[in-house]
Amino acid sequence: MAGGQHGPTLASVAAAAGVSRQTVSNVLNAPDRVAPDTRARVEAAIKALNYRPHRVARSLRTQASRMLGYRVRPTPPGELNPVLDRFVHAVTDAAAEHGFHLLLFTADDDDGLAQYAELLGQRAVDGFILADTVVGDPRHRWLAERDVPFVSFGRTWQGEEVGPWVDVDGATGTAEAVEHVYALGHRRIAYLGWPEGSGVGDDRLSGYQAACQRLGLTPRVVRAEQGMAPGHARAAELLDGPEPPTAIVCVSDVFAYGALRAIAERGLRPGHDVAVVGFDDTPAAGLPGIELTSVAQPIEQAGRTAVRVLLHALGVPGVPDPGRAHLLRPTLTVRASTSP
Amino acid sequence: MAGGQHGPTLASVAAAAGVSRQTVSNVLNAPDRVAPDTRARVEAAIKALNYRPHRVARSLRTQASRMLGYRVRPTPPGELNPVLDRFVHAVTDAAAEHGFHLLLFTADDDDGLAQYAELLGQRAVDGFILADTVVGDPRHRWLAERDVPFVSFGRTWQGEEVGPWVDVDGATGTAEAVEHVYALGHRRIAYLGWPEGSGVGDDRLSGYQAACQRLGLTPRVVRAEQGMAPGHARAAELLDGPEPPTAIVCVSDVFAYGALRAIAERGLRPGHDVAVVGFDDTPAAGLPGIELTSVAQPIEQAGRTAVRVLLHALGVPGVPDPGRAHLLRPTLTVRASTSP
Question: CA-CA to A235 of 20 to 30 Å: which in A45, B38, B137, B268?
């Protein structure tokens, strides 16, 4: 990436300040992680050398790739993620308004870094939009260390976030779901979540726990791997066990669909006998026979915001600085599954 | 596109044969449309000049864009097309196996030709994968005239198809739906379709009509614009009218969801009282409370086939000629909505 450059580089700043490249990158991307005196030293070196981050990308722009890289995970049929599909549409539309296109790629290796490196080497893209983030996602640091512009849809949940990001506030969404069924009179409100260790799942769970604490409820958490069958099985255990819940707040619509099936199998009526709330407001949630109350993510807003953040980092004219951290608020779509 | 070429071109073949570029293109892409003597003259010129179609693309490949262009239609939220989203995933995966990526773009104008031209001018792509085809789609001829490799997912339904294509046999799928409910004892089988003039809709309707004729049934066709509300309204009229159907075969799952609602509202049981069949087997079809019998398109196969056709046209090593026309057979997924 640095071939052909004659100005200051991340490496020359690091050398001048007597720190590692990673530290310089941290000062640029996550200054709170750097001790104040080190930070001051690096900032002085940046100023002295007149170093401008992302200049590699700026120099590449004369080649006008005008392409934003986006990795699509290989998905088994039937396990599509409609949320990310909507995100791709939103990003494609928003990028087109500024003459940018999306480059879709898949990666064989787990984190896809080899593929990111290859696309950079080919100068095929000006920057990346990351999604499908995992806890401690290595891509963010890898890209930041190489001065590659990127924006992340989703956090990495480990220390300070590296680089700019857009995410949806899952904790608040789940807390609102709990408050909604509480307001309807429910007091035995269970939570059907994913196994511990998923950033998104733990975030949503924290909203449930916080709401229970505020409302004086005893939390009751059961967990399963994502999927309709596991969600159905856990919900069935809850309903058949002692003191069955009168409301089940789910980490996903898929779990909620399983819970609805378990409720119907027991001759109970969703909403009337047992309330159910999902998360993601997937297309099926509004169908007759389903009518699932669900937390809706503002995906179009997330896509547009991510594009603005990245295009601003690329110095695209007419894109004002939208800021580096965007926690978007979800909304609750209320349907029959929580109607008494 | 032709800049820097020194070998024979489409234009030089046309000049040698005394015909237009379009005629040469037709000989290459739709030989049945060309009168035999003209065709022989063009073929002789091709041989004499040793002209090789798609050599423009071959010469471009030294620039290694290794990118396949795919237009995404701007979609209003809530009106996503899960079939095409699955197609994009399948194409991305299949292309990656040969080191190709997908370039997603949107287009402001109706047919997007300006955008196709711009991408070609930038040499951003090696070829295109067309989807969202319309009757008489202008893109196919436009690309063929310029010798640009492409493959179409979907036909254009006007005369001979221009260029290689992959499609799903909607007529056969709908006919199987009719035969399925007929075998269950239904004789009053109505069809809920789209307005006349949509290639896909007319194709599916023709399967219904053919099956009715074979089985000695009187066809009964009602039409509505795509959408759950219009589908619901038409189904309600059918159910409330004289001699209501005992089975409704629908051109889309969305119509079928509307029909299921109309059936439930009348205290009838889907499958038991009125059978319903959808088309596309969208993710919601299998959910509890829905359980819709639906015609499933082999989308992953369509995506893989389309990529093979295009990569072969691009001369990618190790991709044998898969042929130019692929009509794939859908399958019927039977669920409770047709279970007596």
Answer: B268
